[in-house]
Amino acid sequence: MDMQSVLHLTITLLIGFLALLFATNMLGKTQISQATPFHFISALVLGELLGNAVYDNEISVLKVLYAIAVWTLFMFMIEIITQKFRKARGFFEGNPSIVIKKGEIDFKELKKNRMDLNELQSLLREKNVFSFNEVEYAILESNGSVSVLKKQEYEQPTKQELNLSIQQATLPITLISDGEILTDNLQSIEHDESWIKNQLLNHGISDIKEIFYAEWNTSTGLYISKKQNQNP
């Protein structure tokens, strides 16, 4: 390798590194911290664009920068769309799946997500859960991780050890997201829109659009977060 080739490679790597760093910062930390399939694909494409420039002398640095810029713009537009339109999030980012509900394994959800019991057990062990019997709810997140809500008697310190009464663990239900009422979730707790509006009135809120997020838990009641208190 002659000096000119070394210099060209060094400049290409430096420019590519700076371009990828700028693209990652522009797209946000979800590219790393919440690697959904969509984010995973985007990271692969960005890396491949730079890799082609390094190993193919016929591809100029300007072409690489243009390709990275266009791809970053596409990704940025998708991020804006998913922030503005809640229904688009499921298409681009995927939806979480409840694979264990009220202590029972939902085999249909496992099959739907192409997951077997061994994979589920492995994910549970990463959460320090070594028995299905300990789990009240397990949710397979869009990024492939599992969130676990243990049964009350297995929480630390255990209520059995403290001789306290044991109550069934309950999963919070999202009722309002981005100012929109989630009708299906309301129906799952056997309520309608008039009920949630009355609940909000009891909290001094007359307009649904004031709410950024609201959830219901049978043990703790209604939790409300207003838009002006949020910094998305």
What is the radius of gyration computed over CA atoms, rounded to a whole number of angstroms? 24 Å
Number of domains: 3
Count the E strands: 8
Mean pLDDT: 77
Strand content: 15-25%
* Strand-pairing-aware structural class: alpha+beta
The 3D shape can be described as extended
Describe the main β-sheet briefly.
4 strands, antiparallel
| N to C succession of SSEs | HHHHHEEHHEEHEEHHEE
Count the helices. How many? 10
Helix content: 40-55%
Uncertain runs are 29-33
Strand order of the largest sheet: 2-1-3-4
Please outline what is shown here.
Helices cover 50% and strands 16% of the residues. It is α+β, with helices and mostly antiparallel strands and 232 residues long.
Please characterize this protein's 3D structure.
It is a single chain. This protein has 10 helices and 8 strands. It has helices at 3-27, 30-33, 37-55, 61-84, 86-93, 107-112, 117-125, 159-162, 183-188, 193-202, and strands at 97-101, 104-105, 135-140, 146-150, 173-177, 180-181, 211-217, 221-226. A 4-stranded antiparallel beta sheet has the order 2-1-3-4. The protein has a 4-stranded antiparallel beta sheet with strand order 6-5-7-8. α1 packs antiparallel against α3 (37-55), α1 packs parallel to α4 (61-84) and α3 packs antiparallel against α4. The longest helix has 25 residues, at 3-27. It is extended.
